[in-house]
# Entry
Amino acid sequence: MAHSKFTLAAFAMTAVVIGAPAASFGAPVPSTINLFDDGHNVTVNQVRQQLRASGFTDLGTISRDGRIFELSALWEGKTVDLKVNARTRTISQIVDPRPASGDSLPSSLSLVGDPDNITVPQVVSGLQGLGFSAISNLQRSGAVFTTTASWKGQTFDLRYDASNGTITDRSAADTRPAEGFPSRIVFAGAAHEASIQDIRRALAALGYTQIGDVRQDGRIYTLSANWQGAPLDLRVDAGSRRITRR
# Structure
């Protein structure tokens, strides 16, 4: 009888284990959100409700800029900064525009052949092999090639010199022109998806302080800010990533 009880108990335990749903570990952050509108009439509460339904927890304060919503939340116990585009119904993670330690751009590319005879397809293939993507506007002048490309979600203006194999970031070299303040802004994503919060965060990452109200007109943003104690009236072109004085 005791043996029968043990057998039944073991069978019941096995049934519970087999019947339990499998735990998921390391699931990717959801990239879409279920919203029943084109974005104009979506409310903060609707976004919050749908994010919770997707599995996010501990949702922080949600800021809104048109159809763009930003917030911090927990996903599988990890804090993530999120941007929700109500028009496209997409969720993306906000990344710090400053490169992470040990995450620097590749600085060299070795291609076989006479530098003056290196072809555009060779350069494109070589850059892709290093991890660059969305390579566009590639132009050459002798053995020097210039192009725009993405690296780990960020867009860079690159210069590749086939004579010595060096890759340089023209946008980094462009940030301290004669005017004496950073003139090149860096943010993840396309220009038409940039929000006022993206612009403010990118300017702060460059060292600007006391950033005032940001006014948006399409891809152009105007604002006042301080650079090393000096007040400046600035114009930011999200399309070209240029910062100029007004």
Q: What stands out?
A: The CA atoms of residues 191 and 240 lie 8 Å apart. The chain has five helices and twelve strands.
